[in-house]
Specification:
About 35% of the residues lie in helices and about 25% in strands. The chain has about 325 residues and is an alpha+beta fold. Bound molecules: oxa(dethia)-CoA (UT7). The site of oxa(dethia)-CoA has 20 residues, from helix 2, helix 6, helix 7 and strand 14.
């Protein structure tokens, strides 16, 4: 039987941290007290003008390949989850492929599931590997969300940041990814969206992120609780065997609720929302890489990843590291 295992991870955050007080100094009508109390966010990173998702992704990918102890030429599949691609086309994944100098025998494409994009990309790569068609996949979440923020909308612009996280997933005879569950309900699309596009050389509609925060909050708490329980059930493992929860990093209150439902103390939850803000598809692989590199997550441990984003689209994975 072929399984998909994590072989290495990497991540990248652009520039210096931008604190809540820095946002106030930039003229946003907010306060450190409001942002910290409502969300747990203290700082985030913003890419410099002109820096793209593929550039952040490439640095994270190079780290992940090094951690996996393989060569770029060994990668035969690249999937990038992003809602802020460099271009309408080609895909950001092909730009990463070019940056890595990989020419042939490697498929590359993007996945769009907003803040759940990394979980969707992971599920896709896992299925390619388990089918036997591919041996070693690079799965990346990369975003420059700062480009789609309306700085006049304080209810959203204080929440998001830029960054990238990457994972090399490889074929193995030992279980790695044990269970995955994906869901979507497009009826909620107006609650979290960028409802614009380009046509005829013009921006059509609204090119900024819009969110009904309370509706997203309520749905997220319930959906994440359910999907985390679902992957534990699908994997057929005891809930007590979970060593780490790595949730999408949008709001510390949503994260705390998820941890409670899984019976996990906060010491077993990786949180980076305080220092990264919400980096959408990049948030889960960024948090994972932080906790692997600082030695918290160790080989043999069991982790649950969970995410939710626009659509709504949500999902989870249970993985033996
Ligand atoms: O990544 C995708 C998933 N996204 C999420 O999970 C986000 C889920 N939602 C949330 O995290 C929360 O709903 C928010 C953090 C976005 C908002 O928190 P809230 O407790 O739901 O606040 P609210 O939207 O109900 O706003 C409460 C008050 C309002 O003032 P009034 O009308 O009560 O006077 C807002 O105008 O807070 C005000 N407000 C702010 N004040 C200072 C909104 N944004 C800000 C701000 N600074 N940045």
């Amino acid at each position: 039987m072929i399984f998909a295992r994590i072989a290495g991870t990497g991540s990248h955050l652009p520039g210096e941290p931008v604190t809540n007080d820095d946002l106030v100094r930039r003229g946003i009508d907010t306060s450190d007290e409001w942002i910290t109390t409502r969300t747990g966010i203290r700082a985030r990173h913003f890419a410099a003008p002109g820096v793209t998702s593929s550039e952040l992704a490439l640095i994270a990918a190079q780290q992940a390949i090094e951690a996996a102890g393989c060569a770029a030429a060994d990668i035969d599949l690249i999937i990038v989850a992003t809602s802020t691609p460099d271009f309408i086309f080609p895909s950001t994944a092909t730009l990463v492929q070019a940056g890595l100098g990989i020419r042939n025998n490697c498929a590359a494409f993007d996945v769009q599931a907003v803040c759940c994009g990394f979980v969707y990309a992971l599920a896709t790569a896992e299925k390619f590997i388990r089918s036997g068609s591919n041996q070693r996949a690079l799965v990346i979440g990369a975003e420059v969300f700062s480009r789609i923020l309306d700085w006049a909308d304080r209810s959203t612009c204080v929440l998001f940041g830029d960054g990238a996280g990457a994972m090399v997933l490889e074929a193995s005879d030992k279980p790695g990814v044990r269970a995955m569950a994906l869901h979507a309900d497009g009826n909620h699309h107006p609650d979290l969206c960028v409802p614009g596009n380009v046509a005829g050389g013009q921006v059509t509609g609204d090119p900024f992120l819009r969110m009904n925060g309370q509706a997203v909050f309520k749905f997220a708490v319930k959906a994440l609780d359910e999907v985390a329980q679902e992957v534990v059930g699908l994997a057929g493992v005891p809930q007590e065997s979970i060593d780490w929860l790595i949730p999408h990093q949008a709001n510390i209150r949503i994260i705390q609720s998820s941890a409670r439902r899984l019976g996990l103390p906060m010491e077993k939850v990786v949180t980076t929302v305080d220092i990264h803000g919400n980096t959408s598809a990049a948030s889960i692989p960024l948090a994972l890489d932080c906790a692997i590199r600082d030695g918290r997550i160790r080989p043999g441990q069991r982790i649950v990843l969970e995410g939710i984003g626009g659509g709504f689209a949500w999902g989870a994975a249970l993985i033996d590291f």
